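Review form for a predicted model. The reviewer records the input and the model, then writes brief findings.
Reviewer: anonymous (R2)
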Amino acid sequence: MGIFVALVKTETPNYNEYIKSGYHAVLNRRTILKNELVIVLDFGGQYNQLVARRVRECNVYCEIYSYKTPLEKIKEMNPKGIILTGGPNSCYLEDSPTYSKELFELGIPVLGLCYGAQLMQHVLGGKVERADVREYGKSILLVDQPQSKILKGVPETSTVWMSHFDYISKIAPGFEITTHTKDCPVASCEDKEKDLYAIQFHPEVLHSEYGKTMLSNFVLDVCNCAGDWRMDSFVEEQIKAIKEKVGDGKVLCALSGGVDSSVVAALLIKAIGQQLVCVHVNHGLLRKGEPEQVIEVFRNQMNANLVYVDATDRFLDKLAGVDDPEKKRKIIGGEFIEVFAEEARKLDGIEFLAQGTIWPDILESEEGIKAHHNAGGLPEDMDFELVEPVRILFKDEVRVVGDELGLPHDMVYRQPFPGPGLGVRCPGAITRDRLEAVRESDAILREEFDKNGLAGKIWQYFTVVPEFRSTGIKNGKRAFEWCCIVRAVCTTDVMTATVAELPHELMVHITDRITHEVAGINRVLYDFTPKPTGTVEFE
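Model under review:
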């Protein structure tokens, strides 16, 4: 996503209202809705985004809305199906999230997951109670009604992921039980006449063996979606939409080199060519070779109108002596805005600002999880109209668009990289020599992971060089130098992460390379801490 942050004046009076409005600066909802739509109503479940992603994997367009969304708005959107997510509450308690009975009377297929399943039964006349045994983790699913549309292709027994305190003790009138587990008498049930389906487990997570099959059955067979949501047609539509919106105007894009900004820049180059001006600010905290790759790909290969700014000294001077992680982040973000604004003022005729905002950014901003990464604030004298061509996409969809546009594979599938860059992997006050040790050790780690086929198997891996030193021996002499910490984690939801199991021989080889090739490092350590209790990054 990069570290660029910008508040721009749009058709809505402030950024929070802009976020909530669902306004798409390039591709508006009318354009989107020519595709079939499935709506996910969020009841606070941790897997809500994953549900939407699974639907989109069926080539069916899907959006997430709060359970507070009025029924009239849902009617206006004319969805082909509705999915209710899980959540942490008990549906029978007062003030718990709920929805009106009318939702289930629209004639639109509805699928309730976990809390959503319980709520469906509660609202329609069934009964939900506290379970004697909490199910958490893997359970064996037993199919009672194999003829169910939603269970097509699902064997009589399979593994599913359960996470619930309450259970459906009595199904609503018109429903029949379709599956159960040893401890859950109603693992799923359905009213096939009204196309209402309730699933107690979580089909959206990978631990549910045939979960994707069930979701596919719902959107394709029950909702009768054609599956016409494809990235090749998305690219064509976006190029057309950008041309119509921008016309002869000029667009400014902050090109960090990350996946989102790179794909946005490539889309705009396809659409308007030299009307786009890309500004790449090197703050000195990028990984080895990244600034050079941006220049090579965009300026030399794509003939982009690229402004390159090497602000390394400026950033590192500002960061000198600052050891507080939050202060470091604020300095890096604030200085980036200043540098970008200075470059923007040098350009004439700029009317639009392009950003790599993606759908999870919007969702997390609405939910208050984090500040929107593009909501930091440009100076008042800079008045741009916003262009966000990948605003409706998840990260994996953005990568597919990057492939469609012909961007290099290692750029499209670049590892997640924090906004402050290597600044968060150089704990404490950043010094130039220690920062270089981080950059070089990280390059060695990435090179070895690539050589050994681990690059696409492990979600994130990097090195950290703390500011403390330890005694070692190099070339027969005492070496009082830093240690290098290797971190490699696997995750599916980013909310939790497990530590990757790396081959011992490979780690010995990586250790040997780092301690002999990187100045100032005499030890290599491996971080075995999962998330939680640790976080993915150190700062």
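Findings: Residues 1-33, 367-376 have pLDDT under 50 and may be disordered.
Further findings: DSSP finds 16 helices and 19 strands in the chain.
Recommendation: see findings above.
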